[in-house]
């Protein structure tokens, strides 16, 4: 596995998309970060869209972003964030070195890592006992949407969208790593009938048992 990601097409696309996010998604980002405190690891920060939403009870955010074009934008967002943010330009797999965090934040990223089971296991190990994983991830659907997701994943979607996979059972992966999900719900950024592979999101808190 490489230490960095080099994907100019996706970087351009994500820069444009993250600058025009719907209010429904911004609301979910705010909710995902509400009440956090202490030292936080953010995985795959993109352009740093989350940074403005961290509460001031967070003492430090270490944000990992391996695509260097996106990391430059994340550093810019870090400079105006309400809390101290350091951007590290490695993949999370390479970055994690046994450091300890009070919380880990994943938003729209567990779809993009090569091996989610391995990454979530690593995230579990860098949390203090009692620490929390906050997640906001689009998830595998059922029926016709599942068929659409499997087709998208097998063809064009990961190539166009920075290795994004739409048919992932991310909450099962989180529980499988040893986390206890203490609060979670589903939300839709588009009405359920819209035939898009990534309309349904899971947002939740998962605790590493003390
Ligand atoms: C869809 S974007 C989401 C960005 C951000 N989390 C957000 O909520 O806007 C996925 C991000 O994950 C990053 N990424 C992909 N593979 C990664 C890895 N192995 N480690 C860390 N970040 C990764 C990509 O570079 C990209 O910035």
Q: How many β-strand runs?
A: 7
CATH T-level topology: Rossmann fold
Order of helices and strands: HHEEHEHEHEHHHEE
* Main sheet: strands, sense, barrel: 7 strands, mixed
* Overall helicity: 25-40%
Structural class: alpha/beta
What topology, given as strand order, has the largest sheet?
A: 3-2-1-4-5-7-6
Bound molecules: S-adenosylmethionine
Identify the overall geometry.
globular
CATH superfamily: Vaccinia Virus protein VP39
Q: Helical segment tally?
A: 8
Distance separating the two termini: 32 Å
Portion of residues in beta strands equals: 25-35%
Mean pLDDT: 94
Report on the structure:
This protein is α/β, with parallel strands linked by helices and 210 residues long. It is built from 8 helices and 7 strands. The protein has one domain (8-207): Vaccinia Virus protein VP39 (Rossmann fold, 3-Layer(aba) Sandwich), CATH 3.40.50.150. It has helices at 8-18, 23-33, 68-79, 92-95, 116-126, 143-154, 157-160, 170-176; strands spanning 38-43, 58-64, 85-88, 101-107, 127-138, 180-188, 200-207. Helix 5 (116-126) packs across helix 8 (170-176). The model has no long low-confidence stretch (mean pLDDT 94). Bound molecules: S-adenosylmethionine. S-adenosylmethionine (SAM) binds next to helix 1 and helix 4. S-adenosylmethionine is lined by residues 5, 14, 18, 43-46, 49-50, 64-67, 70, 91-93, 107-109, 112-113, 162.
